[in-house]
Amino acid sequence: MRAAHNVFYLGGKEFRSLIRDPMLLAIILIAFTVMVYAAAAGTPETLNNAPIAVVDQDRSQLSQRIVSAFYPPYFIPTETTDPAEADRGMDAGRYTFSLHIPPGFQRDILAGRSPAVQLNVDATRMSQAFTGSGYIQAIVTGQVNEFVAGRREASAPPVELALRALFNPELNTSWFAAMMQVIDQITLLSIILTGAALLREREHGTVEHLLVMPVTPFEIMASKVWSMGVVVLAAGTFSLTVVVQGLLSVPVEGSIMLFVFGATLHLFATTSLGIFLGTFSRSMPQFGLLLILVILPLQILSGGVTPRESMPGFIQVLMLAAPNTHFVMLGQAILFRGAGIAVVWPQIISLALIGSVLFATSLARFRKTLATMT
Fold this sequence. Notes:
The chain contains 15 helices and 4 strands. With 374 residues, the chain is mainly alpha-helical. It has helices at residues 2-19, 22-32, 34-41, 61-68, 83-92, 105-110, 126-149, 173-204, 207-211, 217-247, 256-278, 284-300, 313-318, 323-337, 341-373; strands at 52-56, 79-80, 97-101, 118-121. The model has no long low-confidence stretch (mean pLDDT 87). The radius of gyration is 28 Å and the shape is elongated.
């Protein structure tokens, strides 16, 4: 009972320290509101307002049809210009695409020849460059075929594909982006807050005060784990219900309470990891550099950015030791597919085991760090 009492009141001290740190409070607020909204609303589902310039040196009926086919909202109203101005516009970043229609284009088409049309792409704009190249190729090919045939016709394909999109029937990218951003922010903020809580003790010189108090290293570490875990869990739940479901109108298929339970186990692991990283740092800048080396592989290889099935086999096996791999699997199953406990119990057990190992390892490292300070 005395240990529980100490853990509870030390956790209260962490809450008061966090409240007096406006920078961390601002980070929590922005991470679970602005960042989630920006990730969902700022990701275009299709090509959107792409700037394109057309160098029409043919000035024929066919070339004019091609020029008029680039219309909003996919493209900004097309600018017809000369080759030199198109090159300058590409160099200055005013255009993402530059389409060059050569002289005699319509004549060569009608004569049965295969004239070349040049498309220059600013590949520094990766999303638009990749998607837009396919759009432009389809537009030019479609206009040429219609012009040669003299009419618009849609030939029936020999095989009809019956496409059924499950769980996201509109293929809405913002649904995926919003929920994955909440999952990523839970992982990131839990590590940051616990590591910052430990470094705050060191920078403010209050570690010595704790060492002379009748508290154990376990109680000190457990207080930071539960208090910062509660903060991140509350912020993540608020973001999921208010920002994702309310503001962005993203449907959540499964039980939010089951997701919160899985997030609690995940926070047990990641907050312990934050303590572990904090013991290797002497200041917040050092902790930030160390965090970059850890959090980027965790988030990129966990399956939240790229499906795990697309990764090499040894990476898939290696990342099973990371807690957020199982949390991403659990979150996608519950939030997207409406899975219940019968489906996600392997991830729940894995998170509990990984969290226990990380907590024990971090506690041993924390005790060793405190011993060097006495």
